[in-house]
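Retro notes - structure team

What went well: the batch runner handled both jobs without manual restarts.
What didn't: labels got mixed up in the shared folder, which is why I'm recording both outputs here explicitly, each with its sequence directly above its tokens.

Job 1
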Amino acid sequence: MKAVTWQGPRKMSVETVPDPTIQKPDDAIIEVTSTAICGSDLHLYEVMGPFMEPGDIVGHEPMGRVVEAGPNSGLSVGDRVVIPFQIACGSCFFCDRGLQTQCETTQVTETGMGAPLFGYSALYGQIPGGQAEYLRVPHADYGPIAVGDELEDHRYLFLSDVLPTAWQGVAYTGASAGDSLAVMGLGPIGQFVARIAAHQGMQVYAVEPEKERRDMAARHGVEVHDLSDDAVETIREATHGRGVDAVVDAVGMEAHGGAQGVMAKFAQLSAQYAPEKLGQSMMQNAGMDRLAALYSSIELVRRGGTISLSGVYGGQASPLPLLTLFDKQITVRQGQANVKRWVEQILPLVEDDADPLGVDDFVTHTLPLEDAPGAYETFQKKEDGCIKVVLKPQS
């Protein structure tokens, strides 16, 4: 089969690789009909190289049709399914509490991490990913989300990651109708964070440097601001001088701005070209994150407010202004999205003819799998108005 593989920093390649096979009774194989490039994939593209090996198959936002089903998978050939980005058992201590990303059965104990993720480095199990023609799905008796045949793929595809991640980001703020919420960054996650919060009746502000991304969010009732020196103060003035009730940081480790960001970017890039073990040690033990978005979130949120981190951070010693966090009594919540925890609430919205979350106004680029390397570059450079790329392996 054809698959998108990581070959080095900023180097993706579509290669012919062996077809996946059933390995355990609860496995299934799907033919991938749509698969997306995630903002988190860009971290692999440029930052997370020390935990990648040439030939690793990437991608964690797939959907498709079952073509082979293990006897304990609970699936049948022909079933149309969306695959959550994490692999969980559904019945352990953590899964029972809606914390599928911490699944006790599947935890990557070798690296001290939680549940394995499709196509996301040795840190998370080095599981072959979904930017491919076919995908082996472990624990298929629990993970896959069965969907109907009536709607196009793009209506369902983002149940794999983007929508649950954004939904959890909003839920973790504890904000509700009538509250104010700011979103730092309007990439794919930030777009849906803003729309979900607006759908739930909040006053939503967003800060984003790219005009195309601001324009997309503005179409969905979001008050948008350029990334400027006075953006935080302007939003603060609009919230009675206090700041917003909650902030969702949808940027993560590669935020722009600040002297600390320059140094962290240098450290990130240095780690990519260090010997493998040294690079891993740098990532695991140093302050590798560019924290401009988080610092702005701390400045923008009101006293007693909440910050929800949806953007991925990867450093172990990144400096935080603990005095400010303590003095302002700020609550911080974070973590990989627990996909199956939120799907029942989201599914009716993506199937609603009125499209209340604007899923039809999200994908900017639909391309064959062969075009993936160029799509990664375009997405990473924010060129051609690129906000969300969907790849079609069977085209």
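Job 2
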Amino acid sequence: MISCIIRSSTLYRGFATHAGLHATLPAVLHLKTGQSFSGRSFGAPKSIFGETVFSTSITSYTESMTDPSYRGQILVFTTPLIGNYGVPRNAAPFDSKDVGVVLESQDIQCSAVVVADVAEKFSHHSAVESLASWCHRSGVPGITGVDTRAITRLLRDQGTTLGRIAVGADALASRPITDQYWDPTTENLVEQVSTRVPYELNAKGDVKIAVLDFGAKANILRSLVRRNAAVTVLPWNFDFDSVRDQYDGLFLSNGPGDPTHCIGVAMKLRRTLREWNKPVFGICMGHQIIGMAAGLEAYRMTFGNRGHNQPVLALASSGSIKAGRVYVTSQNHQYALKLSDPFPQGWEPFFVNCNDSSVEGIKSTMESGKKIWGVQFHPESAGGPLDTIEMFTDFVNECRAMKQRGVTSMPVDVSDVVGIQTPSGEAFVASA
């Protein structure tokens, strides 16, 4: 019996689809700090600059690569083998269960990928192409055959570092000089990935939530519509106060880069939080913007937290979250909020990271009379653990309860908000 199982397993692996790697070219990862790592190219045969970061995620490489928070970054995967289950067809319906894509956005968002060993065969029932083919078609270079463990140790010791993937003839040329390295954080990356025009999802939902899109992952929107919320996605700098009474809640999404590029939004939000009494929830960049609106300061971490295994300790209870419990979370961020003592009036720390003691969440106090939460991690995961997924339920239920209590709210019609369009397969949140 055992020998039959072994033979069947071997036969099944033989059915795996060959990745169809394109012509192999030499490739080198150059770090601005002086180190270089030589390997071979896969994906697009071009060279590119970016910010070199690492992720400890052991699965969901397709979701990570399409996460807009990785915009402008050279993504190093610490997991040795990447690409073994290929890439799915990235299309889904626009209905009460889905938001138009399978992954986190329509396109690959990172600038390049670095892996120890790219799979030359892939096998999964939903796969339609290989990682190499996907990268090649998307114009995204990759490098394989390098020591990602050594790269990760460097990035942990010296911090997130600017880099360059040099491919083909560029790989044989001299390394770039210091002034040639491009720092994506000097640009407003949020503006690049945010939707250009408002659009609506699940219009028949029983509670209306506005989403300020700083580079929203699709699973954030999916988590809202699956709880029967009618979601209106707004550009990152949209004047929400001009339409706020049409909604039962406000959500601020994740996004890439330095949050200080969005300081103007934070100042507008300060007025919203002061004058508006409906629930507000922010994730990642959205959490940082809520914090800046509250009077906290954002700072750049040494190497950030990127992976699906970050433990956070709840300091307060709220809805499904219980004080004193440790939750395992999915994260992708370079910036965090500084812990202030005393904390701004009307606010309290919500979560703290068990590894580095960084602030992982803030919330309004009970005495403030507000219902505002911000978390640095991603409750919607995709991929990652689902320990905190019910925070979406808490938020939507709180919006629903306030609506039923008669907190001032006007019915919204899609035509009332200038420029709202129903999304199509060709236009989706976070498209470049």
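One thing worth noting from job 2: The radius of gyration is 22 Å.
We'll revisit the folder naming next retro.
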